Amino acid sequence: MFGYIRPCREELKVRELENYQAMYCGLCQVMGKRCGFTARMLLNYDFTFLAMLLSPPDPRPSTCMRRCPAKLFLRKKCTCASGPWLEAAADESVILSYWKVQDSMADGGFWERLGAGALSLLLRRGYRRAAAARPEFDREVRLQLETLHRLEEERAPSLDRTADTFARILRAAAPKTGNETEDRALEQLLYHVGRWIYLVDAWDDLREDVAAGRYNPIHARFGGREEEEQDYLRTTLLHSRNLALSAFALLDRGCWGPVLGNILYMGMPMVEELVFRGCWKEMKRQAVLGIGPGSTRQN
Q1: Which residues, at least 6 apart from 203, have a Cβ–Cβ distance to it below 8 Å?
Q2: Where are the domains of the chain?
Q3: Which residues, in sequence order, are CB contacts of 151 under 8 Å at separation 6+?
Q4: In this predicted model, what pLDDT tens digit does every residue of 25-48 receive, in sequence order?
């Protein structure tokens, strides 16, 4: 995934920020335990959002003290304790990361392909473990990425068709609880967040893709008519965010509700505005929006 889904830190209460960081660290621990140390290198804020969504609606998170592999000589950190929901988020995160690496190997430049190939080898064993644990999710990811590759090869001029493929991948990450209303709401929330991620990323990469001659669905749709591109993107992104918020209103996520609400109501609009202003990548490089352990880790 891409690192776009993060909270607005300044609007989080101290306890909410501590809970978020505990989830971030807990997911890192579980990814390393289940899929190997390399998997931890791929942790980002999008996956933390997924872990919170999959978590049970407890009034307080279950935590424990663990050492951080990046800061072994410092005191232990408070992390969320492992559970089936955190294991599911870890496995799905590794599967998504592995196939994103494969995509970079297919579409990137020489040095990008070289780096992606090395990372793919390091991640392969962990991916196989995760895919064995979540075969249905792995199959859906493969299916939708194959569809997306066909659309890219055709240089499809449709934003909806291409965005739909990635949205379906995230929707497949929703577990079945047996509660029809909750299952439907969670699927819709992840679907529209996935659609939003795909379109924001397409705009973020638009100039680089056009300069390199790579396919970009926005350019294929509008052919460089920038004013039309922005107007349409702003409208359809707002539509997806509103539908995600409507689905979120039907969910109870206990102690994670305030942080998730912060992300959906404030974090996503904040990131979207930075992307449209063209300063998102620079702010990421400078770790201006860092919120991970020590507020320095940036994915």
Answers
A1: 218, 229, 233, 275, 276
A2: 9-295
A3: 158, 161, 162, 165
A4: 999 999 999 998 888 888 889 999
The pLDDT value given to residue 37: 87
Residues of the chain with pLDDT under 70: 1, 72-74, 106-111, 286-299
Distance CA 256, CA 16 (A): 8
Residue 292: the pLDDT is 45
Question: What radius of gyration, in Å, describes the C-alpha atoms of the chain?
Answer: 19
Mark 228-253 as b/e (b = at least 16 C-beta within 10 Å): ebeebbeebbeebbebbeebbeebeb
Question: How far is residue 42's CA from residue 289's CA, in Å, rounded to a whole number?
Answer: 18
What pLDDT was estimated at residue 1?
A: 53
The pTM (predicted TM-score) of the whole model is: 0.89
Token pair belonging to 293: 């352990």
User: Does 9-295 carry CATH code 1.20.58?
Assistant: no
Please write the tens of the pLDDT for every residue from 148-191: 999 999 999 999 999 999 999 999 999 888 889 999 999 999 99
